[in-house]
Amino acid sequence: MTDAQETAEDRTLRIPGGAPPDVAVHSAPVPLLDPREGIPRVTADPGELERVAAAFAAGTGPVAVDAERASGYRYGQRAYLVQLRREGAGSALIDPVGCPDLSVLGDALADTEWVLHAASQDLPCLREIGMRPARLFDTELAGRLAGFARVGLGAMVEKVLGFALEKGHSAVDWSTRPLPEPWLRYAALDVELLVDLRDALEEELDRQGKLGWAHQEFGAIAAAPPPPPRKDPWRRTSGMHKVRRRRQMAVVRELWTARDRIAQRRDVSPGKVLSDTAIVEAALALPQNAQALAALPGFGHRMGRKQLEQWQAAVDRARALPEAELPQPGQAVTGPPPPRSWADKDPAAAARLSAARAAVTALAESLNLPQENLITPDTVRRLCWEPPAEQSPEAVAETLAGHGARPWQIELTAPLLAGALSATPPE
User: Which GO terms describe its biological process (predicted)?
Assistant: First the structure.
């Protein structure tokens, strides 16, 4: 049997125990063209969902889970397809439009380890439809901890297992119905080897002595509450740095809010309603009427009179606001100031930060993992800006724990960071 004839089931490869993860293990990757049992029929009926849930509850081992969204096409980040695979149950494709409540499936898998790639991206949309893992294994994060240079799913499957996944449908409009067969094939293949990848990465992490670290990270992801709503999301409008005056900022706020309301009502991506560039242009120009607005980039001849008038109404609302109701130039700072200003504001803090960064960089390199996974840059900044009164490893460990660092991170970094806190600014 040649490599080209081997199937995914025949050829589940592992990283050799002595090979570093950034060394190629396979020569030419084998294209993975079809799921083992063919493309599953899409489940879009609650009765069929019950049968799928029962089949997966009767399966064994971890369950591979993935979700497809329609980012850039629809409003929000809801799931439009959920893919699963488990030993003994095979693969399943679930349509959350036809089955908006997947809690029966989530309950069936409550005691099972879920395998996801980049879990933090999919968990919010999965929770919305009733799927909440108690335990998980994140293959992207595992790859980072193991020191892989490229941690995308395709790159990891190719590097670790020797197969090439199709890459052509990741950014399509998954709200399309019916979903084309090539898209469904792509979706099914995304979970085809996820458990195999998990097993190989677990072995590699264990070989490197990092498996306990990974389990702590996975536990933190599973236990993390949903993030709170972002305050003043309009401030993240692309090009906002050009807007300096408070009246102009008010225009951005009014246009952004109007756009968001329309996008939500129409269930389309806000960028399809009005571009960020157009919002910023209107804010900078402060047009007096719809005719002046129509002359600006993003408000061209294709826009109807009614649309122009609704956007001009938003501009007019901002123009009419009293000074006291105009937005302030910046958001309230809840943490340390930008590091570039530390040398002037607090030279001692700048010296501490420089020493801490150097220590973290050296340790991360010696452990072959990204600095941000060893300890987050925000945690280091907060520690150095407001260090504990007693700069001992124990006091630093307590501070790091208060900022959400995991025990393995604290054990490795607390002694180094305690030493960095004694750094003094140059004469």
Answer: nucleobase-containing compound metabolic process
